[in-house]
Design a protein that fits this description.
With about 220 residues, the protein is of the alpha+beta class. It has 3 helices and 9 strands, in the order ββαββαβαββββ. The strands form 2 sheets. Strands 3-4-2-5-7-8 form a 6-stranded antiparallel sheet, with helices on one face. A 3-stranded antiparallel sheet has the order 1-9-6.
């Protein structure tokens, strides 16, 4: 009967949250499809102009989640035999939505300029922003290497303590751990007419480091 040993290895590291990720959601409603398309394009151009004015390269502004859909409202058409109101769906214009996303190295002054410039356009979007690490790929590989090294060290210590040796590696299973899309924290700024719902005229954000971990499960033969 083959003798084996299975050990879990775990490693944890901190990454600096040094990249600001921003998503600007443009949305609205118009009476017909063509007007909705025209409004969405117009708002998107204004938003991109405002962001570019803050110092970002226009070609790095990415658009996604574009949609123009028929909107409906409920209209009462009477009551049923039990006295409950009856309604029907009535066409009620078209709703549009589109996201503009971009990233840049943490810079509170630039983020504040972006928010102010967007406010000045008269467009009323929602802004979500969060933080990630520019060293994610390097840290991912380091975590895998360190967790495997920890598992190996523990396995060797166990088998050598009972007078055996570690044999051939049979399997490695990476579990949980690192998330490629990990964002430190998301915050939102919403506009309502000409009023920015923002507590301070100047953003001052210093995000904590991102703590990430990686677990591997490794199985070896036990040699005599």
């Amino acid at each position: 009967m083959e003798r084996t040993i299975t050990v879990k290895g775990y490693a944890k590291m901190n990454m600096p949250a040094d990249i600001t990720s921003v998503s600007v959601t443009i949305s609205g409603k118009e009476s017909d499809f063509d007007k909705a398309m025209e409004a969405m394009i117009g708002c998107t151009v204004k938003i991109k102009d405002a962001i570019e004015k803050a110092g970002l390269v226009r070609s790095e502004l990415k658009t996604s989640n574009l949609s123009i859909v028929q909107s409906y409202r409920k209209r009462k058409i009477g009551t049923d035999r039990n006295g409950y109101d009856k309604f029907e769906d009535v066409e009620d214009g078209f709703c549009y939505k589109q996201d503009v996303s971009f990233e840049f190295p943490n810079d509170n002054s630039k983020l504040t300029d972006i928010v102010r410039n967007i406010k000045d356009t008269g467009v009323t979007p929602k802004i979500d922003f969060g933080f990630r690490s520019s060293s994610s790929e390097t840290v991912k590989n380091e975590l895998l290497a360190q967790s495997a090294k920890n598992a190996l060290g523990e396995a060797k210590a166990i088998v050598e303590a009972v007078g055996s040796k570690l044999g051939k590696l049979l399997s490695v299973d990476r579990r949980g751990g690192y998330d490629d899309d990990y964002v430190y924290r998301r915050r939102s700024i919403e506009y309502d007419g000409d009023c920015c719902k923002c507590a301070s005229p100047s953003l001052d954000i210093d995000p904590d480091d991102i703590a990430v971990g990686q677990e591997v499960v490794m199985t070896w033969e036990i040699a005599d």
